[in-house]
Amino acid sequence: MNIYSLIGVISLVGSFIPPLANNIQISNYFDNTSIIEDFSSNVDVDQYKNVREVTFIDFYEYCYGDNDFSFYLYLALPNDFYFNYYSELNKISLSINDEDYKKYNLEVCSNYDNIFKFKVNLTKEDKDHIEYILSLKDKREYKVSGFELLGSGESNPTEYKIGGNFIYSGYAKGINDNDVSTLKREYVEIETLDLDVNQTYYRFNTSIDAPLYGYNEKTQIDSVYFSIPNYYLEKYGEVSNIQAEYYEYRTSPILVLRDDVYETFKNYIGIDIDDITNPGYAICYYSPNTTGQLAYYTYYERNQVLNNVKGNYPFYYSPHITWLFKGGNDGKNEISGDEIKDYLYSYDKSYFEGSNYKGLSNDLINGTVDENHKRGYNLVNISSEDNENLLLYSGNAWERFFTSWFNNVEIELPLIEKIENVNSVDDLYINEDDVDDFKDYVNNARNLDETTYLFRFSSSNYYSQEIYDKKYSDILFEGVDGYLASETIYLDFDIISLTFERNGMNTIIPAISNPIDVIAGIIPPDTSNIFESLGSLLKIIMGIAIVILLIVGLYFVFNLLGISFKDIINFLFVKPFKAINEKINKSKKKKKK
User: Fold this and answer.
1) pLDDT of residue 215
2) Residue-wise DSSP of 274-343
3) Cβ neighbours of residue 402 closer than 8 Å, sequence gap 6 or more
4) What DSSP line would sit under 149-199, residue for residue?
5) CB of 494 within 8 A of CB of 513?
6) Reported pTM
7) Given this model, what pLDDT does residue 324 score?
8) Burial of 61 (0-12, 13-18, 19+ CB in 10 A)
9) pLDDT at 586
């Protein structure tokens, strides 16, 4: 079968095989042709039998013209390299005729020993758009920055560099009534940026939301940081835009319980307990969404039998537990982002709500996200001129309820910030657990003649609430069992390209960076809640009342002794201050002498 043969070969180790002749024909069944047929006599297949690293062989356009067209990718893989054939995370990053870089899924067509043939999956909308932008120029340019493969047992793919511009012109024989092929291809190497992307976050002590329950909510800045060789900054100017993608979700309630209570509940993770009756004890919390009612509970008895209840009770209920962590003796353990990530990918107890992105259970993912956020896939292109304007409430819950209009704090943060020195991190808003690593990263980058950038790509709302142990028949709380938390997570965050600007000239350079999951740790809520604030206020009121009663008592005592109220004031307030003032004046006169 005569097919559209390979025009050139470029590997990740830099070898280049000269292009073949242009006398080629077209087949409509190229997905099914064998790799040996595809290579024909133009490429020595044996050279790729024992590669030691993932090796790029070729990318090319097939059958552009009046027939359906597609793109194909050839790779040689080490014998001990295993990847998930069918993962949606296997992708290639393309810029077509200088449009923004976009990722497309890869589908395995066939393999010959360790050589794999992939087809780039294009939807009809993709093809229609590509055909339109290609029609605007005589040449067809495909800039390929890299490709991603999900290794077996991995939760995130690894990106491999290509860094080539494949430029086509003309048509193959048989296309547009061509009797002979006029198809030509050129290859030009393009610059790419290798980025080591790291995550961090910062939580303010208060929230943008309603002040009454704001002590449970904290505004969180979600960030990543990376470094760029100064060569690019000197050549192309400052970073003006960052294009990135990620999948955003919000966790369902994460429970962190005292060790003894955890032991009771661990056997019921992912089990539907809706039909169990006879309530004993409850774990519950007060929710601002229900004006103080119990919004989440699961019952258990002291003999470690789990119970639940239905009926006309002033609270909602959850028929199953999904997230559950040990909280130590007091239920206040902090849970790291790595622990949450491990739990997310290892959860296999049940799938009440089905599965989602990457096959992750919807049991662990809330159906909504924060206001003005988009659930699922996000593609962002953020400018260095963009800022995050935050209006925060200060003070405790009681103070914010009455005086929040006096305690508002406005903070303006640049979304892209260049970090050249780290004398203080107070104004960088870095999580305190990440400060040392961040400082080391900046210093190491400077030693390598690189500059670090902090990219605050999103802000979100962190929620946490104490969990109480409540006996069903008793309206009083018996104690604190731990806490509940919910946060926003960003899966497979990946920087696609950076734009540099100098004197009005923009240069887009694609980035090669492994996608990461940006997941913050969770912490117990503030204990200075509205009830404690109310208690503090009552103490102050009682203190003032005692002082008033004391003054009134002294008034009657002095009155019986024939002493006037004016004399009381002089005795309590005027004479002591006069005596102090006289001592100060005498001390000053002695110093002058």
Assistant:
1) 56
2) TT--S--EEEEEE-GGGTTSEEEEEEE-TTS-EE---SS-SB---S-B-EEEE-TTTT---B-HHHHHHH
3) none
4) E-BTT-SS-EEEEEEEEEEEES--TTGGG-SS---EEEEEE---EE---EE
5) yes
6) 0.80
7) 93
8) buried
9) 56
CB atoms within 10 A of CB 109: 19
pLDDT at 402: 47
- The length of the chain is 593
Q: State the Cα–Cα distance between residues 246 and 516, nearest whole angstrom.
A: 9
- Judge whether 11 and 78 are in contact, CB under 8 Å: no
Q: How far apart are CA 15 and CA 56, in angstroms?
A: 10
CA angle at 327 for the pair 247 and 325, rounded to the nearest 5°: 40
Give the SS3 label for residue 360.
Answer: coil
What is the reported pLDDT for 175?
Answer: 79
* CA nearest neighbour of 38 among 75, 80, 85, 6: 6
Please classify residue 288 by burial: count the beta carbons closer than 10 Å to its beta carbon, then call 0-12 exposed, 13-18 middle and 19+ buried.
middle
**Which residues partner with 55 through β-bridges?**
76
Q: Burial-class residue 302 by CB neighbours within 10 Å (0-12, 13-18, 19+).
A: exposed
CA torsion through residues 204, 195, 453, 432, sign: positive
Q: Which residue has the tokens 């060790």?
A: 259
Q: What is the dihedral of CA 51, 54, 57, 60, to 10 degrees?
A: 160
The 3 state secondary structure assigned to 192-239 is CEECCCEEEEEECCCCCCCHHHHHHEEEEEEEEEEEEEHHHHHHHCEE
Separation in Å, CA 310 to CA 143, 192, 258, 272, 291: 60, 59, 26, 13, 20
Structure tokens at 506: 């923009």
Task: Report the chain (593 residues): mean pLDDT per 10 consecutive residues.
Answer: 34 33 46 82 80 93 78 94 94 95 95 92 90 89 97 95 94 81 91 97 69 65 97 96 97 89 80 54 52 40 39 47 91 96 92 87 89 94 85 51 53 90 83 93 96 96 79 55 91 97 95 97 75 53 76 72 67 66 56 43
Contact of 521 with 340, CB cutoff 8 Å: yes
| Three-state DSSP class for residue 78 | coil
**Angle, alpha carbons 567-569-573 (nearest 5°):** 125
Burial class (CB in 10 A: 0-12, 13-18, 19+), 260: exposed
Buried b (16+ CB within 10 A) or exposed e, 459-481: bbbbbbbbbbbbeeeeeeeeebb
Tokens 């793109």 — which residue?
Answer: 71
